Amino acid sequence: MAQLPAQTLHRDPQLFYWILIPITVVMVLTGVLRHYASVLMTTTPKKADIKAIREQRALAHGASLRTNYHVLSRKAFETRRDFLIEGFESGAYLKAPNQKGQPPANPMSDPNAMEGMMGMMKNNMAMMIPNTLIMSWINAFFSGYAIMKLPFPITIKFKSMLQAGVMTKDMDPRWMSSISWYFLCIFGLQFVYVFLLGSDNAASQIAQQMQQQQMPVGPMAPGQDPHKMFKAEAENLAVIEHYSVLDGIEERLLERIKV
Amino acid sequence: MLVPCRASTKLHLTFSPAPSQSPASSHQQPRSNTMAWLSRPLTVIGLVILAHGCYSAHEHTVLSSTSVQHPTSPSATSLPLDIYIETIAATLLICLGLVLGSGTPEPIQWHTWAGKIEREGDSTSGDADKELRSNPFNALEARSGFINISKLRSDFVKYQQLGK
Amino acid sequence: MPSLLLRPHATLSHAEALQVAQQAPEFLRKNPASYSASPFFSLFSPPESSNTWTIYENLLLACLRTGDNTTAHQCLERLVVRFGASDERVTALQGLVKEAEATNDSELEKVLKEYEEILAKDNTNVPISKRRIALLRAMGKTSESIEALVQFLDFSSTDAEAWMELADLYLSQGLYAQAIYAQEEALIIAPNAWNLHARLGEVLLMAAESGNEGNPQNYLAQSLKRFCRSIELSDDYLRGYYGLKRVTDKLLDANSKEKKSAESDEFTLPETSTIEKLNQAATKKLGDIVRKYDAKDPLWQGYDAGEVAAARTYLSESSQKVVR
């Protein structure tokens, strides 16, 4: 159990003041700038028109009948079911009833979809351009040296991440290069941005990406034929075997309140 | 406060429409108080014992690594049993203390929760939790979006005149 | 008491509304006129929550109701500063203030025109549509109001509030079957709302009592089931037990008279013994609730005083009947 003597490197303390702090400050300022830039660039989402809302709500109405049919009596349920199935199958709730059966339009030609894509492009550009600029700035000026030592031990796997740009094989992975500090800043400044700009700021890009991943696919995913969705919903409604929560409720209630 | 509670318990014994509800709720207050009183010291004692266990384990490893005789023998490197027991007991003690210290749980059954809202209303505003205390579906009957303000106004004028 | 400020305004009584309105100037003084979006700056001002704006809205309503127009305008101004004058909800509130300040029909007519202009520009504006419907109703044009509401529900069929309003409108016209249909739609959207179940039970009971359409026996059976469900969803629900007692009394009365007149096609009535048991349980429970409420048991003070009083009178009436 012969312990290796701890590696000691003598660094100029000026490294700390002239590299670490400038990088951090620049990162924070870029985040703030990016936030305001994206606030300027965002256009208010275009309001859906009444037909589209009607289509969506009708579908949601069918879905809620399908999940909550048990509050109704059999007759009441059957009236609603027949009515909705007829409406769904005839396409009465469609945004454009005469277009049913046609394949969904190419998203590229749809102006609404184009607008959404432009918005995404803008966001991505606002994220990419400053990042590339800063990275090249750091690479040009500060590459090739270790600037700080982490106060805790880490495994050798982190070497490639933390010592990017430093080609020393045997160095302890705790030593960190400036480019790795930059990466740490990207991931670690979330909370600073939240504190400075509010929780829904555009600078916390990673949180945004997470949200996009978790967001469930809406009832109207683009490129899907609404008429097919209505037909599927009608089929779902048709196969429901009805039971009512009101059947035999008197006995159930008596049993519960008498026990 | 005690008298109506006792009356209610008796009533439940004779009729008992809602099983054990009012007796339980009337006993909740004192029980949770004593538990809260007990939980602090329990947790603190548990933490102290746990710290002691950690310290013993640390001392043991330092001693066994510096002892030169049998540096690789298993008896020297493994911890003695009493440290294990101490750690586990301390953890259990802390758990117990924390569980006892937590307040009475909110009802998770829909009907008990709803019944509690109906029964207590927002009169128990002394509670620390600022959960909503009135029926969330009241809004559907109140229908603020469709409020008839001119009628309310004229009604209020009438009400004030009645008061005078 | 913040809980009073947060309750939907229409559930408040006149006295409570007055109490709320009197808190308004103090609330306006305590809170800043505008909020910064950055939490860094909000360190130096009281925190903003969604409740704050609910309270502003309720204060606005309460002030309008009690005739305190200047404070109402102050509340409205805060809302405009925060959300902008073009926000849908804020426009609806602005219209509401105009409605409240209108003194005669022609002014109301003008407000209605404004609503229609806004809707002509943007027909998806939900709050304004609702205001227009409510205004039509307030002006006595009930049939137009129903028509507008049906149109609104055609495009927004998942709005439980609107379905409830429709049920209320139909009920005011005595159209029980339609009212029941609208109530059931609201229940599909909020299946566990115990007050909606009780409300539907009440409507069914009214329909049975009016007795001019449909099968009263059938209505009574359904009403019984709805009240049972509302109690099942909420223990110690005064309104549910009150309705249960009413409907079982009626059923027992009818049973003794005419011995199961017609088998209802949809829901069969339970055995008479079950109805009797339910009736007894409801009587006991109502007595229980009234006693505990009167004894100022701190855990039983959430009931509405009016509802408890109604239960008390009904209990004493029915016990007199039994004694006779």
TrEMBL record, chain A:
InterPro entries: EMC3, EMC3/TMCO1. The chain crosses the membrane at residues 15-37, 127-148, 179-198. It is a multi-pass membrane protein. Keywords: Membrane, Transmembrane, Transmembrane helix. GO terms for biological process: protein folding in endoplasmic reticulum. It holds the Pfam family EMC3_TMCO1. SMART domains: DUF106 (SM01415). It is found in: Membrane. One of its GO terms (cellular component) is EMC complex. The EMC seems to be required for efficient folding of proteins in the endoplasmic reticulum (ER). Belongs to the EMC3 family. This is ER membrane protein complex subunit 3.
UniProtKB/TrEMBL annotation, chain B:
One of its GO terms (cellular component) is EMC complex. It holds the Pfam family MMgT. It comes from Trichoderma simmonsii. Keywords: Membrane, Transmembrane, Transmembrane helix. Its main location: membrane. Belongs to the membrane magnesium transporter (TC 1.A.67) family. Transmembrane segments: none annotated. One of its GO terms (biological process) is protein folding in endoplasmic reticulum. This is Uncharacterized protein. It is a multi-pass membrane protein. It is found in: Endomembrane system. It comes from the Eukaryota. PANTHER family: ER MEMBRANE PROTEIN COMPLEX SUBUNIT 5. The lineage of its organism: Eukaryota, Fungi, Dikarya, Ascomycota, Pezizomycotina.
From TrEMBL, chain C:
Keywords: Endoplasmic reticulum, Membrane, Repeat, TPR repeat. Its main location: endoplasmic reticulum. Residues 107-203 form the EMC2 TPR-like domain. It holds the Pfam family TPR_EMC2. It is a peripheral membrane protein. It is found in: Endoplasmic reticulum membrane. One of its GO terms (cellular component) is EMC complex. TPR repeats lie at residues 160-193. Part of the endoplasmic reticulum membrane protein complex (EMC) that enables the energy-independent insertion into endoplasmic reticulum membranes of newly synthesized membrane proteins. Belongs to the EMC2 family. Component of the ER membrane protein complex (EMC). This is ER membrane protein complex subunit 2. It comes from Trichoderma simmonsii.
